[in-house]
Write a structure and sequence with these properties.
Number of helices: 6
Number of domains: 1
Shape: globular
Pfam family, one: DUF8048
Strand order of the largest sheet: 1-2-3
Protein name: DUF8048 domain-containing protein
Organism: Haloarcula quadrata
Radius of gyration: 13 Å
Oligomer: single chain
Largest sheet: 3 strands, antiparallel
Order of helices and strands: HHHEEHHHE
Distance between the termini: 18 Å
Length: about 120
């Protein structure tokens, strides 16, 4: 189950934090910070990027491959913090692809796009 403030499941948060060497108590705050940013820019994302509906409380925005660099710079994230957040979003996208029986399509998307999990809750 995902935290209500961001659409990433707990197991994925643990894995992403470990892989990116970010303290596990720090990653939920980072995910919440990023989610606040994504919600604040929702109109831009809706207008400029492809959106994929997820099976849960998330929709996915498919942005240019270096988009996480822009978000990281805007929010002042370190390279490791940005990597952890990006990994979490990508892993949730892959998991939801399996749930929708669209794994191959979702994996191909990750090869060419940055994927952002945006909460469908207001």
């Amino acid at each position: 189950m995902a935290d209500p403030s961001y659409p990433i499941e707990g197991q994925i948060v643990l894995l992403a934090g470990t892989q990116a060497s970010v303290p596990l108590d720090r990653l939920p705050d980072l995910l919440e910070q990023v989610q606040t940013y994504l919600r604040a820019n929702r109109e831009t994302y809706d207008r400029e990027y492809e959106r994929i509906s997820g099976p849960r409380e998330a929709d996915y925005v498919c942005a240019e491959s270096d988009h996480w660099d822009s978000i990281g710079t805007e929010l002042g994230l370190s390279n490791r913090e940005q990597d952890a957040v990006q990994r979490a979003h990508a892993a949730q996208f892959e998991r939801d692809g399996r749930r929708l029986d669209r794994s191959e399509e979702f994996e191909t998307t990750l090869e060419i796009r940055a994927v952002l999990a945006v909460s469908s809750e207001p």
